[in-house]
Structures are given as C-alpha cells and as structure tokens.
Amino acid sequence: MARPPSGNNNQGFIMSTILVVGLVASVIGAALIILGLEALRNAGVNVNKYKTLALNNACAEESLFLINQTPGYTCSGCSLTIDNQTCNYDIENIGGDNRRVKTKTTIRNVTGKTLVELTVNSSGTISIISWEEVTDLP
C-alpha cells in the first residue's frame, strides 16, 4: 500500500486551523463593535433624559418664583429657554390656594414631564405637596 505524503496533510490541517481561528476572531471582533455602538447609543439617550429632567426642574423652579412674586399667577403655554433648549409649562389654579405646575421638554426624541402640586397663601408662601417625574400629564 502506498502512503500519502505526510507534508500535505499537515499543511492542510494548519491552513484549516488558521482559517477557523481567523473566522472566530472576526466574529468576536464584530460582536464587540456592535456592543460598543449599542452602549454609545444608550449613553446618548441617558444624557438626553437627564437634560430633559434638569430643564423640567428649571421650569418648575421658574414657576415657583412667579407664583411667589404673584400668588394668583397662572399661565398656559409658557416657556423657558436655557442653552437653546426649551421647556414648556403651565401653571394652573386647581381651586382655592392649590396650584398645579406641568412641565414638558423634548430633546432629540427623549421627552420628560414633571408634575408639581402645591399650595400658596396670599403672602406668597409656597408649600410643595408633590414634585415628580411622570409619564403623562393630567
């Protein structure tokens, strides 16, 4: 019986191994790139979420200032712009000394909403009943 040359089998095995290792490394590299891009996208969404929250809080604070200066103050469709970003807010009298402040900000498809309920007396003293980030405004 004739034996096949041993050099050819080893070279084929080595080439196959190199190809498989290269393929596995390429798949792992592609997966890491995809995971990195997804992490960057999520980081951008989180930054915009915190920006909307900060701007909503600024609007609510502006509302409290206005109410403190003029206890009977109300407004609808008011806005506050900071660093080229705008927050819209309403100040509602919901009966007696009770007020409701609703804020809404959208930054790059991320929308944040804040609802503040408070009481105010005739001298402008404000008592916060609740202050929360909400998904829907009443």
Walk me through this protein's architecture.
The protein has one domain (8-134): Pantoate--beta-alanine Ligase, Chain: A,domain 2 (2-Layer Sandwich), CATH 3.30.1300. Helices cover 46% and strands 36% of the residues. It is built from one helix and five strands, in the order αβββββ. The chain has one helix at residues 6-69; strands at residues 75-82, 85-95, 98-107, 110-120, 126-134. A five-stranded antiparallel sheet has the order 1-2-3-4-5, with helices on one face. Strand 4 (110-120) and strand 5 (126-134) form a beta hairpin.
Question: In a few lines, what is going on in this structure?
Answer:
This protein is an alpha+beta fold. The chain contains one helix and five strands.
CATH architecture: 2-Layer Sandwich
CATH class: Alpha Beta
Strand arrangement across the biggest beta sheet: 1-2-3-4-5
What Rg do the Cα atoms give? 31 Å
**N- to C-terminal separation?**
91 Å
Which structural class best describes the helix and strand composition? Answer: alpha+beta
Task: List the total number of helices.
Answer: 1
| Global morphology | rod-shaped
* Model regions low in confidence, pLDDT < 50 over at least 5 residues: none
Quantity of strands, as a count: 5
Order of helices and strands: HEEEEE
State mean pLDDT (0 to 100 scale): 86
% residues in beta strands = 35-45%
* Helical content (DSSP H or I, runs of 4+): 40-55%
Query: What's the main sheet like?
Result: 5 strands, antiparallel
Oligomer: single chain
The number of domains is: 1
| CATH topology value | Pantoate--beta-alanine Ligase, Chain: A,domain 2
